[in-house]
Amino acid sequence: MRDRTNDREPVIENRKARHDYAVAETLEVGLKLVGTEVKSLRLGQASLAEGWVRAQVDPPELELFNVTIAEYPPAGANRQHVPNRARRLLANRKEIVKFATEAKAKGATLVPLKIYWVKGRAKLLIGIGLGKKQHDKRADIAKKQDKRDMDRAMSRRR
Which residues of the chain have pLDDT under 50? Predict the structure, then answer.
């Protein structure tokens, strides 16, 4: 069997999540999708910005909410998926229980960070996000700006 990994396939990132949350731990999970969702994702037509994940301990399950995967126009009107539906996430039972208990204990949120492709299958990276305060966000922005300024100064020196 040949490896069907393709570098040209889009990676959909939730950059807002890293700004709003301090991500403690991450987990790679599979997505249970219908055909038109897969085709739309291959075109990069998705938004993770407002998404969140719900984890249950009994029965162990993960569900993805409020992530928009755009309709795939060539499929026609009768075969379209619902763009904003809840989607089941696929992971090991132990991992689901571990993430659910950690998120509940810390008072954290499970946030979707990135959708990417591994051997032709869509994978989602989720993380346990602890909400940042406004002053933490400002400090992060200041650090990024300082690093950018130092890099510019170093590049001019060369």
Answer: 1-4
